[in-house]
Write a structure and sequence with these properties.
This protein is mainly α and 292 residues long. The chain has 15 helices and two strands. The protein is elongated. The termini are close together.
């Protein structure tokens, strides 16, 4: 995952918030759901496919294509397929679109992630299982091929790949959402100070570093994945400092000192802290990418 770049107006230059219907669809899969709830499936289907694209892969298309392997193999066993499937090719983990991504851009972008390596291993195992199903079918033993396809290692490997794909998407997407939400703090505070916002901001809550999306990410998935790195410790510390500064701005505003609080947004501790968080995010992800 790559942190979004920032411009001088506190906006993301590339990448926006992931469509929540799509994100919920992946969360259902990651939690072991056999299929997404109807409402979430509809939202994900209606969403722009670009909402599922990260690091050169459309994760929803990848999940759909992976799940179609069962239908493709069933058709082959039943003699209704026109595909010319080769056991040696099907057994390889670098020939399908997902496999090619894993061995190319996926490794480049997510090579630091344990979840990525788990997915890579299970994906390779899945193709070995799929090859075994195809080998049984080509030997003329349709019953054995069907048994392998409907139970045992094939089913376990297939479900594991699907869940790990969904988990990879969530890790990347929630991190990006969290970063984007941090950039919006300046506008939120400015609108509150000028009276353009109806948000009920409380200084004691804003001053906490575990209530915003980035803080939740840091204390959740982000911490689980990157907590062992020095760069993550720097990010966590800078993020906590930023929220203390934001809380001070809000406190001054709520004391009726509008001009002073607006000046604090532009000069001094607050803007410095905000930029330090952004720099720490970039350092964290760039460091992990280079170490991969």
């Amino acid at each position: 995952m790559r942190a979004p770049l920032l411009d001088s107006n506190d906006k993301t230059i590339e990448g926006g918030m992931t469509n929540m219907g799509m994100l919920d669809w992946f969360k259902n899969i990651a939690q072991g759901g056999k299929s997404a709830p109807a409402a979430e499936t509809a939202a994900a289907t209606a969403a722009d496919d670009k909402g599922a694209e990260l690091a050169g892969l459309n994760f929803k298309t990848a999940v759909d294509a992976h799940m179609k392997w069962k239908v493709r193999l069933e058709s082959y066993i039943n003699g209704t397929s026109t595909e010319q499937l080769n056991v040696a090719v099907v057994s390889r983990d670098d020939q399908c679109p997902l496999g090619k991504w894993i061995h190319d851009k996926g490794g480049e972008k997510f090579g630091y992630s344990e979840t990525f390596f788990d997915m890579k291993a299970h994906h390779a195992n899945f193709h070995q299982c799929a090859g075994a199903v195809l080998a049984a079918a080509q030997s003329g033993d349709a019953a054995a091929a069907t048994k392998l396809l409907q139970g045992g290692d094939y089913v376990k490997a297939s479900e594991r790949v699907k869940m790990l794909l969904a988990r990879m998407f969530i890790i990347a997407s929630e991190g990006r959402e969290a970063i984007d939400s941090h950039i919006k703090w300046k506008a939120r505070l400015r609108h509150y100070i000028t009276g353009e916002s109806t948000e009920d901001l409380k200084a004691e809550v804003v001053a906490r570093d575990d209530q915003c999306p980035l803080g939740m990410w840091i204390n959740g998935i982000g911490g689980e994945r990157f907590g062992h790195t020095p760069a993550f410790s720097v990010l966590k510390s800078r993020h906590a400092h930023f929220h203390r500064c934001a809380g001070e701005v809000l406190t001054v505003a709520q004391q009726g000192e509008k001009a002073k609080s607006l000046q604090m947004l532009e000069e001094g501790a607050y803007p410095d802290a905000s930029q330090q968080v952004a720099a720490a995010v970039v350092t964290l992800f760039e460091g992990q990418r280079q170490a991969a």
